[in-house]
Amino acid sequence: MKITSKTTIGEIVADDYRTAAIFSKYHIDFCCKGYRTIGEVCRNRDIEESVLIEHIEASKNSSANQSFDYKTWPAETITDYITKTHHRYVAEKAPIILQYLNKLCGIHGAVHPELHEIFTIFSKAVLDLTAHMKKEELVVFPFIQQMRKAQKEGNHLETPPFVSIENPIAILKQEHETEGERFVRIAALTNNYVPPNESCSTYKAAFLLLQEFEKDLRKHMHLENNILFPKVIEMEKSLESVRENFTQI
User: Fold this and answer.
1) Could you tell me which residue ranges the Hemerythrin-like domain spans (predicted)?
2) CA distance readout (Å), 159 to 42, 127, 229, 243
3) What pLDDT was estimated at residue 202?
4) 105 and 174: one domain?
5) pLDDT tens digits for range 147-175
6) Number of domains the chain contains
7) Which backbone phi and psi does 175 adopt, to 5 degrees?
8) Average pLDDT across the chain, whole number
């Protein structure tokens, strides 16, 4: 794809995930605020537009593995991947990080009081993410599966209790914003996940796990905000005509 000042960040990362590293380097949120254009970001952050685009293009031409071309996947494959990869990651890693942070607060909290705030923020994040993921797994993702089935079979689809898929998506995207802001704060409190000099192994492990957790979460949110959600909104619109035709029979 040709990148211009009007190209959105989300479009760029959806086209080639290797570009996410460039946006992370510039501390540009590509997951929760992927709707912003290159021109808008460069103006707000005082970044030379041509330089940023050059770096983005270089990352696309790098030898690094692009991984999967997620944007070509059907919606039901993406939901399955998110559940089995990113939801499972949160469920497995969150208790370990909480255990480490709790231990650090007990041992180093008096000298490093920021640990208590980190523990509090991360604890809230885990609680909210757990509810968020359940909402996806029990409500949103099953409806996406129903839409996809109706699309394949050419059938109409009954109007759901939430009327349109855009309504729960709006809520999910707002919750993504909240988590993104939380991890901006955690990154600041941890000096971008750099532990103090002469830190113990638990300190280093906790910060490393937090950094990996944020990286996984941002990819998780990117897949939903920039690829899955636009895809299913368009799917719903295509099904609306089928529903209208059915009601006229």
Assistant:
1) 83-232
2) 42, 31, 18, 9
3) 92
4) yes
5) 999 888 887 788 889 999 999 999 999 99
6) 2
7) -65, -35
8) 92
Query: Which residue carries 């757990």 as its tokens?
Result: 130
Instruction: Kindly report the backbone phi and psi dihedral angles of residue 27, in degrees, each rounded to the nearest multiple of 5, phi listed first.
Output: 55, 45
Range of the domain at 50: 9-60
**240 domain residue, yes or no:** yes
Region for residue 62 given its phi and psi (left: phi exceeds 0; alpha: psi -120 to 50; beta: otherwise)? beta
b (16+ CB within 10 A) / e for 46-72: eeeeeebbebbeebbeeeeeeeeebbe
* Residue labelled with tokens 């993104």: 180
Same domain, 42 and 146: no
Task: Tell me the angle at which helices 201-222 and 88-108 cross, rounded to the nearest 10 degrees.
Answer: 150
Residue with tokens 């009007």: 6
Global pTM?
0.88
Distance of CA 248 to the CA centre of its chain: 40
Does residue 19 sit in the same domain as residue 111? no
Q: Which amino acid is at 135?
A: K
Q: Extract the tokens encoding 154.
A: 């050419």
